[in-house]
Write a structure and sequence with these properties.
289 residues; alpha/beta; Arc Repressor Mutant, subunit A; D-Maltodextrin-Binding Protein, domain 2; 10-stranded mixed beta sheet; two-stranded antiparallel ribbon; 12 strands; 42% helix; globular; transcription; transcription regulation; LysR family transcriptional regulator; WH-like_DNA-bd_sf; DNA-binding
Length: 289
């Protein structure tokens, strides 16, 4: 059993297939398949169930992934912590982000971080906010962008912003200077998977209920749906496209706010993860939320 086999195992499990895993780690697809097959022979059991529509981990595979992740984490810590004692921050930073924050908040941080710590290799992957929390809990990500509140997590605040109403052009509410959340009740509502909990909580606080007809992951998709008249929405100002055809943006009365933060996945974090966390926190004081 080799470290390469363990890295290949994790890549296949995380990517959900041999081809995507090969692309991620820079190996050929046959080499990835051979590495997994050799590992299965050594362990005497199948780690994946192979079907036409893809692969899934077996029960043994799930256990193997847990131990492989732990083994590789300790191996990487051996190298990076010894290097850190000598004043060098090295290793891999696994950073998970939500799409709305990647370009606006994370990319600038990564640029200055790379200048300060050029020996750190960054792996960035995106998902919805609940997915990011799961990756942090499972050890698949070292740091991640999440929404507050986040009880028990060590966090550094990135940004707080208001949410606004997105209406089809020509909608009766589009001419108002401000729109109440209750005015959106009874209309087809387009919800965002990531912002849904914040929006629904704001609706409950306003004593109303929104009629969710559609749900979309990407902000651009929501704006396109609003622009074609499929419904109304409430969207964050962070990453909001400017001048989207067929869409009118209006401030909300008593607008809900959303706060994004960087969270550490573990108190026993790698030097690279701690360095990035401290870099984001800057002169401010991180807090346990």
């Amino acid at each position: 059993m080799t470290l390469l086999q363990l890295r290949v195992l994790l890549a296949v499990a995380e990517q959900g297939g041999f081809t995507r895993a090969a692309e991620q780690i820079g190996m050929s697809q046959p080499a990835v398949s051979r590495a997994v097959a050799t590992l299965e022979d050594e362990l005497g059991t199948s780690l994946f169930t192979r079907r036409r529509d893809g692969i899934t981990l077996t029960e043994a595979g799930h256990r193997a992934v847990i131990h492989a992740r732990g083994a590789l984490t300790h191996f990487d810590l051996l190298r990076t912590e010894v290097a850190a004692i000598g004043g060098q921050v090295t290793g891999t930073l696994r950073l998970a982000s939500v799409p709305s924050a990647t370009g606006t908040l994370i990319a600038p941080q990564l640029g200055t971080f790379a200048e300060r710590y050029p020996q750190v290799q960054v792996r960035l992957f995106e998902g919805e906010e609940p997915e990011v929390r799961t990756w942090l809990d499972q050890g698949a990500a070292d740091v991640g962008v999440i929404f507050l509140p986040a009880p028990g997590r060590e966090i550094a605040v990135l940004d707080t912003h208001e949410m606004v109403a997105a209406l089809p052009a020509g909608h009766p509410l589009a001419g108002r200077p401000r729109v109440s959340i209750s005015a959106l009740a009874g209309q087809p509502f387009i919800s965002s998977g990531g912002c849904g909990p914040v929006i629904m909580a704001a609706a409950r606080n306003a004593g109303t209920r929104l009629d969710v007809a559609y749900e979309a992951r990407e902000l651009t998709a929501i704006m396109q749906m609003v622009g074609t008249g499929l419904g109304v929405s409430i969207v964050p100002t962070l990453g909001l496209p400017a001048g989207f055809d067929g869409v009118v943006i209006r401030p909300l009365e008593q607008p809900p706010t959303r706060t994004l933060a960087i969270a550490l996945g573990s108190a026993d974090s790698t030097p690279a993860a701690r360095a990035f966390f401290d870099h984001v926190a800057g002169a401010g004081q991180p807090s346990a939320a």
